[in-house]
Amino acid sequence: MAFEEFGDYDALGLAELVRRKEVSARELLDEAVARTERVDPAINAVVVRHEDFARRQIEAGLPEGPFTGVPFLLKDLDLIKGTRTTFGANLYKDHVADHTGTIAERHLAAGLTIFGKSASPELGCMPTTECRLHGPTRNPWNLDHSSGGSSGGAAAAVAARILPMAHATDGGGSIRIPASACGVFGLKPTRARTPVGPDKGEGWGGFSCSHVVSISVRDSAAMLDATHGPEATSLYYAPEPERSFLEEVGRDPGRLRISFTDRTPHGDAIDSEVAAAVRDVARMLEGLGHHVEERAPVLAADPSTVAPAVISANTGAALRSAEEAFGRPMTSDDFEKLTLAYADAARSVSAIDYVVALQRAFLIKRSLTSFFERCDIFLSPTLCQPPVRIGEIDTMSDRLGEIRPLLRRYVPGTSMFNMSGQPSMSAPLAWNAAGLPLGMMFTAHFGDEAMLFRLAAQLETARPWKNRLPPVRA
After folding, report:
1. Alpha-carbon distance 281 to 361, whole Å?
2. Is 444 helix (H, G, I), strand (E, B) or coil?
3. Is-contact 120 153, C-beta < 8 A?
4. Mean pLDDT score of the chain
5. Does 198 sit behind a cis peptide bond, omega within 30 degrees of 0 on the bond before it?
6. Which superkingdom is the protein from (predicted)?
7. What are the tens digits of pLDDT across the range 336-382?
8. What are phi and psi of 117, to 5 degrees?
9. DSSP type of residue 208
10. Model pLDDT, residue 4
């Protein structure tokens, strides 16, 4: 039978109902599947479905965890043995994983029932989710606009209330960008806070990490409690938290020193409604008792000179692995034009170029470390424009050179915190006149997710977002 109140609960709330036997894991799964069938034809967020796997989980008996019985989606870049993962690429449309990734193992241990995979751009390389294999994932607030990327399927599914929380990853903004575009909460953890194994020790030179997008702050905190910590093959790991992250939610953040900017990291002006929203939030923070000043970091290197080398090299390595596995060169039948262009560019990136890029990333980290000596939190726009329209960033275009300057205008401020490794979150605190969400990005010191969770809970109380629902929803 349908559980009609499903959308009123966050993930911890649903787990509590299961714990009290007021609803069963099977009923929650049935409701999530029904919601997918109702709303996904419009938004195209769930691109791989394996309800049979989730039903077998329930039949076998779910482990006792913080989210026992709660339906969940894994991003279509990660693995569960015996289920399809396509990486958004034609080449892998029928790929069935022969093992389970470490992050998915921790999701399963938390008691989640994983009934499918959420859409990602091909290999997770773009801030919009419009891969050729599955088609565009649309924004529930306006179907003509992008849901963001690369965790666009996860954010669209949560925003449309298919489920309250979904897996996401972030190598250059891919949790925060779709969280902003879709009006949900998304926190990128500190570098190495969550595992990336067992097949690799780091992603994108250490820039990439996993977590979730969610309706509530407390779900994000509880999930980080469930998934954080090194694995046996970790190259390095984040500092241990003082207490559980869930305990931080609701704790007094104190009077924080908050710096803010309403411009890009290059000093350029941004969309006027986004800039006004930043200043409005800055005033709200002052009203909450924080010390707020307009001040932006001066970076010793440009993040846009680092990302291309790192992304190209990693994409080139992924295509080389594919060529070795399939025993042939990769063609446009296998991958999109942009992916092939990245791999081709990697051939001109020398080992020296790659090391120089990582050295520049370190200079960025050093600049930000100095900047944060005078503040606890840095507020900036997650996106410097409203969510782009579907088709505006075209990975199959013959004019791929137009993408880079567009990204410089659209999303220039997220990747530097992947390079510094700092925790950074997007909170849904503003909407423009057209009704599109405008996420605000807050970044803290390295290792200090606790501060972000305390502040996020305060913001969630001061300006609640849970009941702001998009026109397209389950």
Report:
1. 29
2. strand
3. yes
4. 97
5. yes
6. Bacteria
7. 999 999 999 999 989 999 999 999 999 999 999 999 999 999 999 99
8. -120, 140
9. B
10. 77
Give the pLDDT confidence score for residue 2 in this predicted structure: 57
Give the integer Cα–Cα distance in Å for 77 and 179. Answer: 18
Phi, psi of 444 (to 5 degrees): -120, 180
Across the range 234-254, mean pLDDT stands at 97
* Structural element, H or E, at residue 416: helix 415-420
Distance, CA of 278 to CA of 429 (rounded, Å)? 9
Task: Quote the Cα angle for 351-122-301, to 5°.
Answer: 40
What are the structure tokens assigned to 305, written together? 């000179």
Tell me how far apart the alpha carbons of residues 69 and 58 are, in angstroms, rounded to a whole number: 8
Question: Would you state the structure tokens that stand for residue 417, as one six-digit string?
Answer: 């915190």
Q: Is the pLDDT of residue 203 over 60?
A: yes
**pLDDT of amino acid 1:** 43
Domain ranges of the chain: 6-462
Amino acid 156 reads: A
Q: Which amino acid is at 145?
A: H
**Size of the chain in residues:** 474
Residues marked active site are found at: 75, 150, 174
Q: How far is 425 from 248, CA to CA, in rounded Å?
A: 15
Q: Which of 136, 15, 14 minimizes the C-alpha distance to 64?
A: 15
Mean pLDDT of 201-209: 96
Q: Which residue has the tokens 């097949």?
A: 199
Q: Which two tokens stand for residue 191?
A: 């570098």
Cα distance between residue 262 and residue 346, in whole Å: 34
Residue 169 bridge partners (DSSP): 210
What CATH class is the domain 6-462? alpha beta
Give the helix/strand (H/E) hosting 33. Answer: helix 25-43
CA distance 418 to 406: 20
DSSP 353-370: HHHHHHHHHHHHHHHHHH
d(CA 275, CA 272): 5
Amino acid (1-letter code) at residue 165: M
